[in-house]
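Here is one such protein, fold included:

. . .
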Amino acid sequence: MIESLIKFSIRNRFLVLMIAAGLFGWGVYSVQTSKIDAIPDLSENQVIVFTEWMGRSPQLIEDQITYPLVTNLQGLPQVKYVRGTSMFGMSFVYVIFNDDTEVYWARERVLERLNYAARLLPGGVSPTLGPDGTGVGHILWYTLDAPGMDLGEQRAVQDWYVKFGLQNVPGVAEIASFGGFQKQYQVTLDPNKLTYYGLSVPQVIGAIRANNNEAGGRKFELSGIGYIIKTTGYLQSVEQIQNIPLKTLNSVPVRVADVATVQMTGETRLGIFDLNGQGEAVGGIVVMRYGENADEVIGNVKKKMEEVARGLPEGMKFNLVYDRSGLIQESVASIQHTLIEEMVVVSLVVIIFLLHWRSAVSIIIQIPITIATSFILLNAFDISSNIMSLTGIALAIGVIVDNGIIMAENAYKNLAVRQAELTAQTRGSSHGAVSANDQQNGSVTGVNGQNGQAKPVPQTRL
């Protein structure tokens, strides 16, 4: 097999050179389009199911949400195991699939099963899928630097402007907001007043909910003009909530303001985000989508930030807290420098070892072709160019030239042996012809066996 391949390559040298040039060109293109990251993504192939039921204890969350979801998600195909965790007001279920499972196929299977499992959950509770990112998908953290601005206003800018702008960047799975206060209307009931007016908490909740919606009517035509009738009831201020009637007592309406205090406040927080010990901050986390190019996504997010920054309030700007692009560039640059150094050192060693420039070139040329071809395989198997994969290529440079040196030395040895045989045959034929002439003239010559040269002997007359 190997002998036939060598014969074919020798007899079709132009074809072999064209194939090598094509592989090198394809490899150069693969280097330019290869995914770049600092570290390999070794996280498990998982789908996260998040369920929120605020105000409930972890034990209640475990019994009513986490346990039903875990037991119903265990029978999915290609699932290794299912893990669940419960905390105050929130439930997380991690569905771990086999490594070779396509991530979006897995998400579809989980979503199908959630449609069935949702009937086992309490009313008003709806589980949702987490972002299609991985454990190393946090590629960029930023905060909003706005001196003198209220944390609630900063969070509003983040949730209603910045987040929507950055989510449009290709490759971004989610913009997770953190810090500040999420504005909400808060109604604080007075139990004594509820008892006095004969009201219950569900009645107050039902009245507020009924007044915070919109009712549709019909089309009414008058004098050839059509009028669309509707009722607008969305609550837009504290005063509107205070004036919602709950019941009528002695022809006098009892309003929300009579039994409760209504105010604009922030949602209950389970923690704070502090930046460098200088106080609270508001910002977001850019989560990269599964299988994307981290370096390219970070660059696109930064360009989008420049556009979004034009619409920020005066005095507000972005402050990058964590940027993986610096780590990516430094890691890849270090490995590239090492690759170049190893290629130069190995080339010098080959030249010194062989002392024949044509043989050395035939071996050295294998290094760039092999490295370029390795990037073709990296892209084919969807492996990013990181410190692990590039280090493996660097370690293999010495192995790349080993076979070339062995083949060159073997070729030299066989050529030398064959050349010696041909020389001996040629000299033997020439000596035989001379001996025949000498025999005719009555003279005999001998050959020195040590140095292989003809040596005259004393002549004898026949």
